[in-house]
Specification:
The chain is α/β, with parallel strands linked by helices and about 170 residues long. The protein has 8 helices and 4 strands. The protein has helices spanning about 10-20, 20-25, 30-45, 60-65, 70-80, 110, 115-130, 135-155, and strands spanning about 50-55, 90-95, 100-105, 170-174. Strands 3-2-1-4 form a 4-stranded mixed beta sheet, sandwiched between helices. Strand 2 (about 90-95) and strand 3 form a beta hairpin. Mean pLDDT is about 90; it is low at about 1-5.
């Protein structure tokens, strides 16, 4: 999976979205796989005050594909799904765009004050290697575990009260 650093107009990116055939690429995301990843999100949220949110999207919206990249889409979704709106600003969005072969982590300012962008990028790169090896679900499960460990390091709770500011359900945007 590739990472686009700067947004630039791209006819090739738009064409990829138009020609993408979801049933050939997102077969791994079955109802059972979504259920297992939802469970992984719940496990990743134990023992700390952070929130983890996972969005998997087949393609960029066609109206945005020429002018925007997957990272910009992730930032838009971070806002749209209100991941930034947690009490202590500890929301972390994991965004996977299947067509663009990209994975991004968008972290709110609370956790970003403790974790450098290079750490987030290294976590993405590690997951992308496994995804390229056709182990997408396992890769995302491992990434969710790593994010949970990182959040526990900075926002540990001895007693984990029941409280969930964001849904743990995997969001799949077709």
């Amino acid at each position: 999976m590739r990472q686009e650093n700067a947004s630039q107009n791209s006819f090739a990116r738009l064409w990829r979205q138009v020609m993408f055939v979801p049933m050939l690429h997102s077969r791994w995301l079955t109802a059972d796989a979504r259920s297992r990843l939802t469970t992984k999100i719940a496990e990743a949220e134990l023992g700390h005050r952070g929130e983890v949110f996972l969005i998997v999207e087949n393609t960029l919206p066609l109206q945005d594909a020429y002018h925007g990249n997957a990272r910009e889409r992730a930032i838009d979704l971070f806002s749209e799904y209100r991941v930034w709106d947690t009490e202590e600003n500890t929301g972390v969005l994991v965004y996977v765009n299947i067509c663009e072969h990209s994975l991004d982590i968008i972290a709110d300012r609370g956790i970003s004050s403790h974790v450098s962008p290079t750490v987030w990028r290294a976590m993405c790169d590690k997951a992308l290697v496994s995804i390229a090896g056709k182990k997408t679900e396992a890769s995302l499960a491992g990434l969710l575990d790593e994010i949970g460990q990182l959040l526990r390091q900075y926002y540990h709770l001895e007693h984990n009260p029941s409280g969930n500011e964001l849904s743990n359900t995997v969001v799949f945007l077709k």
